[in-house]
Amino acid sequence: MSSSVIGFIRASLISLLVGVVMGVLIAAGVFSGACKPQLITSAHAHVNLLGFMAMLIFGVGYHILPRFSGKTLYSEGLATAQLWLNLVGLVGVFTGLVAGAYTDKDLLLYMVAPFGAVYALGAIVFTFNMLKTMGGPAPPPLAPPKPPGS
Fold first, then answer.
1. Strand, coil or helix: what is 6?
2. Could you say which of 31, 33, 44, 149 is the most buried, measured as most Cβ atoms within 10 Å of its Cβ?
3. Is the confidence at residue 15, as pLDDT, over 90?
4. What is the pTM of this model?
5. Neighbour tally for 41: CB within 10 Å
6. Can you tell me whether residue 53 is helix, strand or coil?
7. Cα–Cα distance, 83 to 126 (Å, whole number)
8. DSSP string, 71-90
9. Start-to-end CA span in the chain (Å)
10. Cβ neighbours for 140, distance < 8 A, ≥ 6 positions apart
11. Residue 101, number of CB atoms within 10 A of its CB
């Protein structure tokens, strides 16, 4: 597996761990002092969906889609750039939501939205990289195997 695929899968597994622990802490009432508890719930959802699910999909997509299409990945550099965009975006969104739950400051506008845009840019990079990878003419079919002894 490429380093970007490994990076996406690691980020996904760490996000799963954070999401599960956060869910237990929510159930235990650890975040009951939040003045905006809906932002805690939103942070929990985002770390699970953008962190665990989407990052796993990106990693698996980079690993299998080129193979299924019979082509090489258009750009490993773009995959690595996307990994960093998604990591920075996810951490920023998550931090902004948790911090926003404990303040009257508008962190949704000044932190969550910009970091969400960074994450979205990563998704655009993934889409471009996959479309370029799978585009163009299909690879030539494999020649049939030769019978033994010929």
1. helix
2. 44
3. yes
4. 0.88
5. 17
6. helix
7. 9
8. S--S-HHHHHHHHHHHHHHH
9. 36
10. none
11. 20
> What sign does the CA torsion over 38, 44, 45, 47 have?
positive
Q: Residue 71 and residue 133: Cα distance in Å, rounded?
A: 7
pLDDT reported for residue 150: 65
Contact call for residues 83 and 11 (beta carbons, < 8 A): yes
- State how far the Cα of 103 lies from the Cα of 42, in Å rounded to an integer: 15
Average pLDDT in the chain: 94
d(CA 101, CA 123): 26
Structural tokens at position 95: 């931090």
Query: Are the CB atoms for 48 and 95 separated by under 8 Å?
Result: no
